[in-house]
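Students often ask why we bother encoding 3D structure as a string. The short answer is that it lets us treat folding as translation between two languages. Here is a chain of 101 residues written in the first language.
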Amino acid sequence: MAHPSDTLALDVAVPVFNEQDSLERSVKSLHAYLASEFDYPWRITIADNASTDDTSQIADRLAAEMPQVVAVHLAEKGRGRALKRVWLDSPAEVVAYLDVD
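And here it is in the second language, the structure alphabet:
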């Protein structure tokens, strides 16, 4: 199937709660993999589940610094809630998720 350059093919949700120690490494690793191996338009959506550490700030910084990375902030905890929000809002043809660890 041909993909126009503006059609998002894949959106990988990364739900996080208090993951300040592993978020940056994980997102950078996933970003590098997708950039080198996936031939269609993609993005990584970090879904912060009301973290109380520096996770939210790290997510915002990664989104500002890295193309194809966005950060979404939820007021309440819950992996299912985060995935539902990201997936329902995503324009991508395929949605997936990956845990930070």
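Translate back mentally: The chain has three helices and four strands. Keep this in mind for the problem set.
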